[in-house]
Every structure is written in C-alpha cells, then in structure tokens.
C-alpha cells in the first residue's frame, strides 16, 4: 500500500525548459517556502553532512533507483543526508503513532504534540534537521507500507503510476531513504530549473518480467476512480522531453505481439507532464507488448513518435531489472547532445552545414570533465548571430571580405551589416553592443530585413516569423499559441537552440518558396505573372513596384483635411462623441467607412497604415493611366508602363504591390469586372474598398478566378479552398 503526496508544479515554457516548484498542495506556498516553524514535540537532531555515513541498505537502495533510471536513459541521483534524516524521522513518527495505509489518516502530515513530531509537512521536516531552503522549497515525499526492505518499497512505488513519476522524473536530483518496521519513506529533491529534460518511459524499452495488473485501491489517490474500475492492466507511463505539448496532441496506443491494439484508458498527469495508458484488462503472461506515443512538439511544430516494447512475466506484480547492457555509442561527439529535444535535429543540421560550431575541449560544469559541448541553452551575442546568419546567406562574401579595422574581430560582419542595411544595435561607433546578448526581437528584425532587403519594424518582423512558419512563439497559459507580437518574446534572449531551429525553418521556407516558372516566366511571388507577356515585362513591373514601395515609409498615410480624423478613429475616437455634421463627426465618419472592417478585426494600427499607403501608391499609378474603353488592357505592365488600364489591369497592379509586401492576393473576375483581394490574418478583403469579402459564397455563373492566391490553397468557384498539388 502506498500513499501519494500531491505536488504543485510550475512550468515556465521557455525554449522547451521545464521549471518546477514542488510543495504540498494543501499548504499553497507558505510553509514549504519558509516562515516560523511550530514548536517541536521532539527536538530533531541536526545533520552534519560532512561526517554523515550512508548505510549499506541506503547505498543499495540508491543503486536500485539509479539502475532503473539508467535503463530509462535518465541521469543518476545521489543520497542526501538531510533528506535521509527527514525520511527516517517521519517513518518513526508513523510507526510511533500507529499510522497505516488502512487507517485513513494522511500519512504525509504530522500533528503537533504527537510522539516523534518534527514538522507538519515534508519541507518543515527537512528544515528541522538543517536542510537548506533550496531543499525545503523543492521537496516531495513517497511512502510505502507493509514492505520488508527499502528496495521492496521502491518497487512498490514504481508499480504505482502516480508515485512512479517522482522516481523517474528527469529533474530528480537527490533522495533520502529510510525504513522503520515495515514502513518505507522516500524524500525527494528536484532541480528547480531543468533545461532539456530527458524523455521518461516506464516500463522501459526491453524490460522483462513486467507485472500484469494494477489494483487502484493500493494507491492514494486512486487513479482508477475516474474510470469507475477497480483494476487495470499494468500501467504504462510516458513523459516527453519537451514541455511544449498539450494533451490534445498526444495519442498513446498499446499493441500485443500480434500487432493487435489493446484497449486502454488514457490519462494525463499535469503535475508531472506524464501521460498514462491503463490497459482495460490485465495483461497476458509472458507476452511482448509494444507502446506507441505520437505527439506534436509545439515549439517547432513537428510530429514526433516514441515507440518501445516490454515483456510481461508469469504473474509477479513487480517487474525486475535485466542485466546491464552496454549503452549505444553517442551519435555525436558532444557531451550535452540529446536526441528528441526540439533543437536536436536542427542543431545537427546547422553543425553539418557549418553555420554553428560547438565548444571543443572545454570543462563540462556538470561532470567536471574536459569535453566537447554544444551549450544549446547558451545565449548568443549580436555579433555571433550575424556571423551565423552570414554563414548561411553569404558564405563566400563572409570568407573573402577583408576587415576595414583588423583590431575589431567582428569588423567583417558589421561591414556586411552596413552594406545590407540591417538594423543592428552595434555599429563601428558603438561596438560594445556587438558583444551583448541579442534579443529575439532584434534577431527577428535583422532576419526579416535581410529577407526583404529593406529595414522592417519589429512588429512586421514578428509577423514574418509567424507567416513563414519559422516559429509559433510561446504558448499562453492554456497551452495555445496566439501568435501575437507579445507572445513572440521579443525581449527574451536568443539562445543557441533557438537560432538553429529558426534558421532551419527559414531554410525550409525558402525551399518551399523557390521562384517558380509560370507560363515561361520566372516569378518572384507564388503563382502570379500579373498578366504580362514575357520576362522583360515582368521584370519591369517588379522594378517599378519595388522602387515605389521604397518610399512607403515617407508617404503620409492619408491626404487631405480629414487626415487627422483617421488617426483619431484608429486611436478609438468615434463620431458619436461629436455633434452631428460637425467637422469632427464628418471626418471620423469618413474614416469609419474606410477602415471599420480592419479595425473590427483588430488589425494593428501600423499594419492598417501600411496597407492604406500601399493602396494609395498603387492607385496613384492607376490614376495616371487612361481607360481606352476597349476592355483590352489586362496586365500590370500595360498600366504601369503603357499608361492604359482596365479593371483586369488595375487588379493586377494591386496584386503586384501587395505581393511584394508579403501578402497573399487573388483576383476574381466576370464579364465586365475584376476585383483584387488581399488576405490579412484569417480574413480576405477587397483591396479597392478594404471591406471584408465573404469567400465562402459561390461565384456567379459567369464569374471565374482570374488569379489564384499567391501561395497556398486553390480557390474554387463553389466558395471552397482545396490544397494545391505540389
């Protein structure tokens, strides 16, 4: 019989990190994190850690725990004298007060005045024997009743799914073990910050003599109560290496040796980031089972699969550990490389390409050995990021450019940054910032500016990072990815793990958006030729468009006497605040007619202004062309160069301008009209009016799609979108 101390875990989802604080739920934070200790009934003796000697049974218990963890692939833990003494004191308290599993008394709480009292909760008991505040703040406890040895108690805890998670938690650092009569108490200390936690599974791959069933009432709380059954098959547990996973994205299945799926109950333990499979019936004797978990790692938006197998025994409830096997050789020479991390594949790719390098023959702070390290959670300076970026974008230029200031070791990368007009913090006059950590926001600005070949704002850069599927940003408290400017983490430091993932995703974006040849014309944006006849016409159109967009930042976004009222409307002012027919009323009313749909859909003020200015610039070129009333002008070239236009040609001009700004556009036409549309967020708008268009409405009989969306899905006449064939 075992009893589970409920724990509270706090997760900080930054770059795949898990941060945990473990305290008794009932105490919120007060007692576990300090405060005045109550008067002790028995004054516990303080532990002198330097002179503490572990018993043979304690050493054997530690070896047993570490043997299990090693088979899973987890790092070993150590014995801690303060944890041992706290465990021993509590075991004595339980025996002295005749507290058993069946007595129904909370085995984790002590009562002031009773024999052997040393602290109300595990944190108090650790503090009472001299344990540090760090131990107190990140501690937990497990109890096994009616067992003959500490190792039997450990096996009992491993059979119980909720208790098991503590022993095989990647962030478990040290333990205390004690037995008094037939009660075993284990106390745990967890690292507060766990970077790149390992994957944790149980039964582990290749395990034999695994138990057949689990009886719910042997664990408190009973994990089977929600399924309304008394027992299940032996419980399987899986904890992904990434915390950027939500239950809806996790699918777990169990198969027998013939490949037949075994029915299971699925359960998530949010406290430990663990997912359980409870087989609906006891497992078969001497049968090999295969487990398969599939989940989406939301940090890099990849689907990952974990598959492993184990074999049951003849009926014993406690699995045994097979003899130690020689671990496989590491795939790379870096001591801190781990498979299955969100950055693993990207890191190997970046190293193989020469974009990033490891730290060779340096002291590993974790092991004290001189080893090769990747330091994935290390920060990057602006100078380091520029070096990585130029290794990717312009490797030959980076190699062959001579430094104009040989005393400045980053001279070449900042010469190139000046040449490509990248918005760096450091300059030749301000070199100090080159050696400071670069933020994710600054990184995004530099990358997006390099991509567009012009300086962009930080908000536009973040939008590019999302649109190009380079990142999803950080999740909100519900595990969802809002993909907002705020959720990008612009002020967070850029990590080495971040940049390799971002760069690989950017490379994928470029590969997927290579220039296509459409009707014999090499195009810059998706499928669009803008109705031109040949490559020369296309090149001329794009030359004009790009030159015009260069002056976009210098253009007023609204002309005329009503300009200030447009700003007032964007800032939340409304016509109802003014007298009807007053100048303010009429000005804001005009702004409302033009911008209401964009404002209602919460398009940012900056983006609204950019869109409005681009439309005005394009409209200016259209206005300089004449309509011959023949219906013949059909291309952007005819309007921009030949100065003749029609609705088809006008729509092509709008499409060219907004494609060049990175938007998705398309053109719908009929016998006597053609209209260009732009996608902003999840909505489509008619460019000419900036009103939302209902794209689900089927086209009229004589209408057709003159130009499909720049990229992505194909639009159909019936008002639906279908996936484009690659």
TrEMBL record:
Q: Which Gene3D superfamilies match?
A: CAP (3.40.33.10)
Alphabetized PANTHER family for the sequence? SCP DOMAIN-CONTAINING PROTEIN
Quote the InterPro entries the UniProt record gives: CAP_dom (IPR014044), CAP_sf (IPR035940), SLH_dom (IPR001119)
Q: What is this protein called?
A: Uncharacterized protein
Superkingdom as given in the UniProt entry: Bacteria
This protein's species is Geobacillus thermocatenulatus
Check the record and name the CDD domains matching this protein. Answer: CAP_bacterial (cd05379)
